[in-house]
Amino acid sequence: MLTTCCAGEPSGHGADDTGETGRVRRGMRVSELSRRLGAGSVRAVVLVLPGGEAESRRPHLWLAEAFLWPLAGRIARRGRRHGLAVHVLRYRYRGWNGERADPVVDASWALAEVRRRYGPVPVGLVGHSLGGRVAVHVAGDARVAGVVLLGPWLEEADPVGQLRGRSVLIIHGARDRHTDPVMSYRFAVNARRVGARVARVELPRAGHVLLRQWRAWTTLTTDFVGAALIGGRLDPVMLGALEAVGSGGLRVHLPRRRARVLRRHR
Hints:
- By secondary structure, the protein is an alpha/beta fold.
- The protein has seven helices and nine strands.
- Helix 4 links the parallel strand 7 and strand 8.
- The N terminus and C terminus are likely disordered.
């Protein structure tokens, strides 16, 4: 269950909406894609999905977005020469809001907007906390090739069938007190059973906002989306975890010094 952490109307869909600006017009709040980072000539897109709260109709949580900008910039710099662009999604509301699943509506709009702007390019999803759950729910889009879930909020009822054929990386801090590492492990097992290629990493010293071992998990994320979208190299440990069967590769522990090893395999 998600606890509060820093981390009515479909946005961008109607004639009265702004579609791309994300500002409130005519009494309606709309979702927004951030400015593009990375390539000018776009061959693939990473959509970054911030966290939020379980229930809230308050505006988008800027602090949750700010936490992910350094990661978005790192992905963009690494992928620029290969045609990789990055956008951060700004939701209409900071809450999931029960059956409304408001950020899922926003992310579905964002995927359609990516296609409108760039054509049928492959897409990677990177979601933190609530954003991880959003990524799971929209991963069935045909253009989604890779999914990264960072400290994801997941529930037993969340679907897994849409992940069949996708590459999925889950990174969870062992000291997370806002979302449940045990739940993400169960989710990984279920996703693998339906045909997803899944690796799951536990960071022993990290909590929900992943401030510890920052370089390690950002390296893993950057390399993973690069491999999924533009054919980049993947660390052998992660490659082995993705190819494992059963529960293998779903409890990869990453000590602090592992970041240096990862950098040598770029």
